[in-house]
Design the sequence.
């Protein structure tokens, strides 16, 4: 099989695995770990679509003829930084919830029931 | 019962959308339409050898300003949420002799490496964002080795705020001189030298300082035990 | 891509899937955080094989350095074991 199946398969497995961890676990920190794994999978999927066979990295210190697509790399650079910002802010909310309820179980947060 | 049906429906939708991404993007095929202009004329128009840097700072500079704003909002919200906590202070034992001696020698080398990464953003891979995070990792090493060390909050906020304001002022100077926000108003120079590529070194130095001070502030807010 | 690179990538992808299963099953949250750092590190190696060095440096510094540090500080303020 060619290399594309490996890379696409890894990215899709990470996305599905991350969503399963975030949807079925009860501990708040494990939900945030699942979201982090899913974001890594999405970034890997974006860069895999930009690969060109026989191309090199987009840095022009010699005149190359075949260069890998640089636009998905610029998008993913922004996405990684925003991912860490969202994770840091979610963890500060978790620390506040633990200080009030003294438990990290998501079923014990009574203010969010309807 | 209905929750299980909804979960299965969600996975079917997810599988369909991911399958359509994989089917229309065969692996390794040459499909550059928009990026053809950036690859062919990128070095001539901007003067930088790293095309990803030219796209992030010059061709798509407004998106980078939005990303810096999102990072700033997240760090400020974290500082505001963790402000007045009351925890029982657990007893801290000092770290071992090997860690505290080695940290004293490695700390300036890590800061030197981080500065190298963000100053050479237009010549080698890297740029402002990983350079700032490497500097924050040096401060994390210092917090782990010396548990009583304090970094003053006023210095960090002053550095971060000044770097952010100077970034917007650089954009407004481009508006004044060349009628376009964040235009390239410095001379392009010869590609391959350190002082070339217009405003790219200036903006990446400002982003490096800002991200470094911000992440050090986040780690310092998470470290404190009692107020 | 030459076949030896495909074998190397297959071994790395198997490690990544193993780390995801470990992060699902374990009850010790420190092990889950460290497996998330391992996934970021292996993704950084895959970015380098896909000829993207900018993204590899950024993912290695942020994913395997800063996110793990923030998680460990938060684990110190809350509980370590999932009940």
Sequence:
């Amino acid at each position: 099989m060619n290399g594309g199946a490996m890379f696409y398969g890894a990215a899709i497995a990470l996305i599905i695995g991350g969503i399963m961890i975030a949807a079925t676990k009860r501990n708040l920190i494990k939900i945030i770990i699942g979201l982090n794994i899913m974001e890594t999978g999405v970034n890997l999927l974006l860069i895999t679509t930009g690969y060109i066979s026989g191309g090199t990295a987009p840095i022009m210190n010699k005149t190359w003829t075949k260069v890998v697509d640089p636009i998905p790399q610029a998008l993913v650079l922004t996405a990684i930084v925003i991912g860490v910002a969202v994770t840091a802010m979610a963890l500060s909310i978790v620390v506040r919830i633990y200080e009030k309820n003294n438990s990290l179980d998501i079923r014990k947060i009574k203010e969010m029931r309807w | 019962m209905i929750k299980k049906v909804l979960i299965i429906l969600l996975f079917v939708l997810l599988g369909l959308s991911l399958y359509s991404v994989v089917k229309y993007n065969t692996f390794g095929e040459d499909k550059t339409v928009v990026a053809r202009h950036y690859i062919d004329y990128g070095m001539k128009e901007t003067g930088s050898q790293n095309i990803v840097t030219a796209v992030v700072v010059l061709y798509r500079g407004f998106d980078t300003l939005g990303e810096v704003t999102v990072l700033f909002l997240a760090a400020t919200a974290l500082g505001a949420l963790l402000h007045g906590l009351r925890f029982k202070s657990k007893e801290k034992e000092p770290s071992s002799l090997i860690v505290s001696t080695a940290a004293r020698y490695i700390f300036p080398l890590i800061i030197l490496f981080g500065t190298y990464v963000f100053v050479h953003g237009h010549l080698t891979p890297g740029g402002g964002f990983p350079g700032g995070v490497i500097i924050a990792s040096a401060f994390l090493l210092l917090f782990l080795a010396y548990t009583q060390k304090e970094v003053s909050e006023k210095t960090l906020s002053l550095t971060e705020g000044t770097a952010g304001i100077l970034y917007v002022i650089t954009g407004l100077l481009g508006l004044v001189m060349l009628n376009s926000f964040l235009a390239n108003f410095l001379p392009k120079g010869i590609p391959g030298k350190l002082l070339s590529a217009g405003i790219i070194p200036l903006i990446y130095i400002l982003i490096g300082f800002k991200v470094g001070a911000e992440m050090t502030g986040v780690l310092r807010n998470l470290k404190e035990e009692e107020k | 891509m030459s076949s030896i690179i495909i074998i190397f990538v297959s071994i790395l992808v198997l490690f990544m899937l193993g780390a995801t299963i470990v992060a699902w099953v374990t009850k010790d949250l420190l092990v889950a955080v460290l497996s998330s750092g391992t996934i970021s590190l292996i993704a950084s190696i895959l970015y380098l094989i896909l000829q993207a060095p900018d993204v590899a440096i950024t993912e290695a510094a942020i994913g395997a350095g800063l996110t793990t540090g923030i998680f460990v500080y938060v684990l110190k303020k809350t509980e370590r074991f999932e009940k």
Observations:
- Helices of chain C lie at 3-25, 29-49, 53-77.
